[in-house]
Amino acid sequence: MLKTGSAGGPEAGNAGSRGQTGSGVYRVVVLVSGGGTNLQAIIDRVKDGSITNTEIAGVISNNKNAYALIRAEKSGIPAKCISPKDYESREIFNEKLLEAVRAYEPDLVVLAGFLVVIPPAMIAEYRNRMINIHPSLIPSFCGKGYYGLKVHEAALERGVKVVGATVHFVDEGTDTGPIILQKAVEVEQGDTPEKLQRRVMEQAEWKILPRAIDLIANGRVKVENNRTIISE
Ligand code: GRF
Fold this sequence. Notes:
- The chain is α/β, with parallel strands linked by helices.
- It contains six helices and nine strands.
- The strands form two sheets. A seven-stranded mixed beta sheet has the order 3-2-1-4-5-6-7, with helices on both faces. A two-stranded antiparallel ribbon has the order 8-9.
- Helix 1 runs parallel beside helix 6 and helix 5 packs across helix 6.
- It is globular.
- The two termini are 30 Å apart.
- About 4% of the residues have low confidence.
- The site of 5-O-phosphono-beta-D-ribofuranosylamine has 14 residues, from helix 1, strand 5 and helix 6.
């Protein structure tokens, strides 16, 4: 689940406009809260050239102990913590978070396990320029209450045979934005929520999140009527 606030905003352009700094390189900011394995997948795919024309301009965590911050540091990527604990109110935190994102001048904001309610002003400012990874095949096991292990517990409880992950643009709803990529993963006998979570990450999340970034950075994703069109 990605929790979002509720407010409208002007329609921004489609994903794919590039180079906020005029350098021509697509600038990505990654927002994280935890271990950062999805961040690592992005870092690795930029390094090995699977994601092209892209630079990770910065990493922001709401949690100062997130291992994701160490991953960023090890790769020489600017990183900072903006924690709600350091501010008097949620409003001030929201403003500081948005300022920190803006400061990196991103073309694309990537939520990679970011466990924070996204402020409405940020959703409006980065409409069709902010993506999220969710560990299910949306619209199954998504929306309010579906996050982390809960998603995989619910899938096992229901007895589904196929699960997966989804990359989508972020809008005002909870996991309701236009879907960019999905990948299915088989449930196996003896799966626990933890085993399933790991397999969904390995087989789906770490593949489709970098792939979606590459598609967007190369201007291949358009949004029309809440659906995406991906060009060859
Ligand atoms: C992933 O399962 C992602 O789908 C979810 O949070 C988890 C983040 O893991 N939104 P990591 O921090 O990337 O290791």
